[in-house]
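Hey team,

Filing this mostly as a record. A colleague (T.K.) asked me to run one chain through the structure pipeline before their review meeting, and I want the input and output archived in the tracker in case anyone asks later how it was produced. No errors, nothing strange. Just documentation.

Input sequence:
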Amino acid sequence: MKRLIYSLVLVFTLAISANTVSAAGKTDKIKTEMTAEQQIQLKQITDRVQEIRAMDKSQLTKTEKKELRKELRGLKNKQMR
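Output structure:
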């Protein structure tokens, strides 16, 4: 009985690992070219992010810091689309 259980566990483990290995090799993402507008928008977003990161945040109030975090999250979401 133990041998049957161990055999089933082994088969199950091999089946799962084979499935994950085959899924890991699939990286067929289609690369699309960005339009001129998208490139400009990306440049604006990255410039703003660099500007925020270069800021001295030690003099900002708690609400100002919160607004900056919200803005960064919004920029990140906009960039991902």
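Quick notes for T.K.: The chain is about 75% helix and 0% strand. The radius of gyration is 24 Å.
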